[in-house]
């Protein structure tokens, strides 16, 4: 027979694993707020006259601001979550290093202007919007640059975006389908020439390389190695003439190696080596 000991242990409070109620949490926050207000008031009453008397107003203001931010953090205004929207190409760890904010830090301890400035130094980022969602969240919306071409410069490859801005720190494996542009000033003029090429899809689908010649005009190299020389003054007109030649079936790898459209009055075609041999043999037969 087991006897139950009904003797009570004195001095022990009951232990509960349940979460505190909402009213309980509100009481705790109110107590923290009252403590913070009282402490801030006492600190100000003591430190303000003393700091002014010692002649250190700037140091005093900085100290007071630090205490204020720390106090707000203890009242629950701490970073718990950082939400990032708009990231597609940039690596999350790169964003994290730029943000440099840890969970539990006072949410007002980070300047939004400084944070924005650090993020905008990343090549991929075009613009940033940051806001605090009190009491414990940072919201960051990123607008990334959209690559349209690969720039080859001094044996190094970079990406070029829609505004002609060079993206230096980028992995190129997922952008191999983009056209290659060459020339010292090619990035600046790439958006315009690609906009023109979009009007001629039959040409655009054949483009492999766009070469900026003497910083004045463009040469186009097709995927089948045919070279096209565009006019300096009227590149769109050159493309329209080239498009007509393609529609007429006059531009084939086996027949033509170069198309010169620089002169508005004429079109110069250079035969491919294969076509030249065929014509030569045909002449001997006759």
From TrEMBL:
Keywords: Cell cycle, Cell division, Cell inner membrane, Cell membrane, Membrane, Transmembrane, Transmembrane helix. The keyword Ribonucleoprotein does not apply. It holds the Pfam family POTRA_1. InterPro entries: Cell_div_FtsQ/DivIB_C, FtsQ, FtsQ_C_sf, POTRA, POTRA_FtsQ_type. Residues 1-27 are annotated as: Disordered. The chain crosses the membrane at residues 35-56. GO terms for biological process: cell septum assembly; FtsZ-dependent cytokinesis. It comes from the Bacteria. Residues 77-145 form the POTRA domain. Its main location: membrane. Signal peptide: none annotated. It is a single-pass type II membrane protein. It is found in: Cell inner membrane; Membrane. One of its GO terms (cellular component) is cell division site. PANTHER family: CELL DIVISION PROTEIN FTSQ (PTHR35851). HAMAP family: FtsQ_subfam. Belongs to the FtsQ/DivIB family. FtsQ subfamily. Essential cell division protein. This is Cell division protein FtsQ.
């Amino acid at each position: 027979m087991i006897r139950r000991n009904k003797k009570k242990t004195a001095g022990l409070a009951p232990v509960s694993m349940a979460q505190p109620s909402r009213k309980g949490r509100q009481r705790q926050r109110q107590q923290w707020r009252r403590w913070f207000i009282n402490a801030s008031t006492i600190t100000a009453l003591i430190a303000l006259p003393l700091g002014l008397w010692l002649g250190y107003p700037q140091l005093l203001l900085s100290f007071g601001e630090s205490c204020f931010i720390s106090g707000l953090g203890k009242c629950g205004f701490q970073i718990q979550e950082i939400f990032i929207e708009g990231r597609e190409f940039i690596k999350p760890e790169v964003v994290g290093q730029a943000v440099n904010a840890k969970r539990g830090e006072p949410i007002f301890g980070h300047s939004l202007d400084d944070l924005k400035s650090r993020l905008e130094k990343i090549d991929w980022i075009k613009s940033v919007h940051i806001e605090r969602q009190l009491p414990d969240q940072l919201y960051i919306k990123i607008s990334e640059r959209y690559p349209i071409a690969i720039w080859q410069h001094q044996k190094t490859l970079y990406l070029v975006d829609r505004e002609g801005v060079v993206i230096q720190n980028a992995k190129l494996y997922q952008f191999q389908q983009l056209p290659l542009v060459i020339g010292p000033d090619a990035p600046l003029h790439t958006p315009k020439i690609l906009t023109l090429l979009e009007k001629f899809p039959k040409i655009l689908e054949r483009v492999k390389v766009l070469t900026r010649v003497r910083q004045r005009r463009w040469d186009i190299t097709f995927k089948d190695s045919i070279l096209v020389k565009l006019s300096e003054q009227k590149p769109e007109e050159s493309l329209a003439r080239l498009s007509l030649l393609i529609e007429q079936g006059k531009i084939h790898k086996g027949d033509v190696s170069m198309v010169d459209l620089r002169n508005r009055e004429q079109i110069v075609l250079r035969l491919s080596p294969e076509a030249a041999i065929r014509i030569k043999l045909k002449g001997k037969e006759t």
